[in-house]
Amino acid sequence: MGFTAKQLAFSVAVLGLVSFILGVLAENKKPPSGTPIPGKGVVICSYPSDPSVVLGSLSFVFLVAATAVGFASLFYPYKGLSIPQYIMFKDSTFVIFFNITVFTTGLGAALLLWPIIEERKHLNNKVHHDPSTTCPTAKTGLLGGGAFCHLIRLCCGW
Fold first, then answer.
1. What secondary structure does DSSP assign to the chain, as a single string?
2. pLDDT higher than 60, residue 157
3. Which residue windows are transmembrane per the record (predicted)?
4. Considering the entire predicted model, what is its pTM?
5. Domain coverage including residue 26
6. Count of domains observed in the chain
7. Measured between alpha carbons, how far is 41 from 126 in angstroms, rounded to an integer?
8. Cystine design at 111: which of 58, 84, 146, 152 (Cβ 3.0–4.6 Å)?
């Protein structure tokens, strides 16, 4: 027994919605900054508990899963019949929506990964030799922006 179009569409929608929710939660849970603790020639940053890295990473994983299922559903044969790819890519409407979807997926992935990597670097490197350090965190708004790019992708294409 194969998958139906409704099952694949429902899977993409659920995975995408979970990715969106986790991305928004990650943005809301991200601390604005750490607490600088001055020492002799160094500043040690103390950061509060930060679930944004885990939530953002899970959001990215669900984005990849939704994209994989969505991409597979485009070329999956329904009832044993498949449409050749060259025929689908001759249709200009399909090509436009396909490209918009690929672009927003890449943008959403980049906007999710950038603050996750930056936040992880800040949490790992807590000792700074610059006494004017203010204990930064990753840029605010990127996780939420990535989540909303993914929501746009869901509304537009797969």
1. ----HHHHHHHHHHHHHHHHHHHHHHHHHS-S--EEEE-SS-EEEE----THHHHHHHHHHHHHHHHHHHHHHHHPPBTTB---HHHHTT-HHHHHHHHHHHHHHHHHHHHHHHHHHHHHHHHH--EES-TT-----SPTTHHHHHHHHHHHHHHH--
2. no
3. 53-76, 96-117
4. 0.86
5. 5-156
6. 1
7. 14
8. 146
